[in-house]
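FW: tagging you since you asked about this chain on Friday. Here's the raw sequence from the shared folder, copied in full. Didn't touch anything.
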Amino acid sequence: MEFKPRLPKEGINVSRTHPLKDFAVLFSGVLGLGFALFFLLSFLLGQALQFIPPEREASLFGGFRDQIRNLLAEVSDLDRQEELLTVLSQLEEGWPEAPYPFELVVIGVPEPNAMAFPGGLIMVTDGLFDGVTTQNGLAFVLAHELGHFAHRDHLRHLSRGLALNIVLTLFTGSGSSTGPDLLKLSGEISNRRFSQKQESAADLFALELLHKSYGHVDGATEFFASIIESGESGGSFLSSHPAPQARIDLLLETIAARGWAV
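HL: got it, structure written out here
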């Protein structure tokens, strides 16, 4: 049999589909894999972090807490910080089994907000004082953040950030910077949102701690009532939280059921 060499057929190594379609399929697959890996890592890390002893948590995240506190010191409101430290001390006396001592910083930001950072740091914006004017009202907001520490919600949230950093490192070769900066902090603040179930549990913890600390629960609904009266959404403090009226209703029902003084 005689061999007759010939050129290969035209387009033998070229896909019959449009290049953009191939790219879209490939991109969708990589994106789907990234999301699946992110949610899996978030779940596994969230479960693992719950086993960290509180004292180990305080030492593990002590450096991070100090860096955040020092970063916020430039915009802190020292007068209001001293005022809230007195309230925080009162609440700590009502919660003697607290896992570790807490620190507090008030920053000059007009949006009402408060949040709990790993290691025992609580950040409050001075915009919160616009809607809350009584000591008991402020105490409830602080006690709510203590509730997140008690239920370790801040660690569950931290697992998402760690998972995202791992996924970015795997897919891009570089994760987020380990050193805290203003950009990283703003992202942390804007995404510090807990589920409605976690928020309701923190509200009930705050209500009980308010009663233990003061002997009554006056001021428990003050902040939520101020949000309703102002007709505003409450900014990021309430962006993914239960509606203010629903939170007031839950608190009032609990107060009535337990017969606590108002």
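FW: Confidence is low (pLDDT under 50) at residues 176-192.
HL: agreed, and Strands lie at 103-107, 114-117, 121-125.
FW: great, closing this out.
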